[in-house]
Amino acid sequence: MVNLCNSRVFVPFVIYVLVALAVHTETKERRKDGKGSRRKHDRTNNKILQQNSTLQNSSPDPIMGGVDAGDLQVVWEEDFEKSIEEMVTQVRNNSALSKNKCVVDRQLWMSNSRSLSPWSYRINHDENRIPVDIPEAKCSCVGCINPFTMQEDRTMTSVLIYTKIPVRRRLCDKLSKKPRKKKKCVPHYRTVVESIAVGCTCIV
């Protein structure tokens, strides 16, 4: 009976002591945190800034590492113009891309020859634009290729598919036939968006 009473008294006492210790410890920690919160906050901010700086300078991405927004824009424009030049070279060197025949050639892997609205590519040349040359699609059929007969069916129509791309347009032509007498025009380029045909599709 005595042991039972002791256990009934001991268990609540232990719980009380644990709770009191927890409250005391929490109060003590809060006081410490209150005194050093500003220092800790400043140290954390400095650490984050140092980490961000390190990440920026040591980025595995050759484009993102140590470049700002202006440099990224220049890199993007250079890559875009290089891609356009490569496509122009392919069109000039590959006759399968430039032939204008209303037929489907399933032996070729290129989309323009396997489409039911086949198309060819031509070079869109403009001296007052950068890039000067851009490959552009031209539908090879007025109608569409019937998938059952593999012949042109003019009850349907092939239409161009357009996309918009950024180019740099020269606003003042150097080679103007009628030069202005008042002021000499200084050519400058401005980025504009132009529509370029990239393929063909069939509509009913």
Automatic annotation (TrEMBL):
Biased composition (Polar residues): 46-60
InterPro entries: Cystine-knot_cytokine (IPR029034), IL-17_chr (IPR020440), IL-17_fam (IPR010345)
Alphabetized UniProt keyword annotations: Cytokine, Secreted, Signal
Pfam family for this entry, one: IL17
Protein name: Interleukin-17B
A GO term, aspect molecular function: cytokine activity
Family the entry assigns: Belongs to the IL-17 family.
Subcellular location as annotated: Secreted
Annotated signal sequence range: 1-22
Keyword Signal listed: yes
Region entry Disordered, spans: 28-62
UniProt record, GO biological process: inflammatory response
Gene Ontology CC terms, in alphabetical order: extracellular space
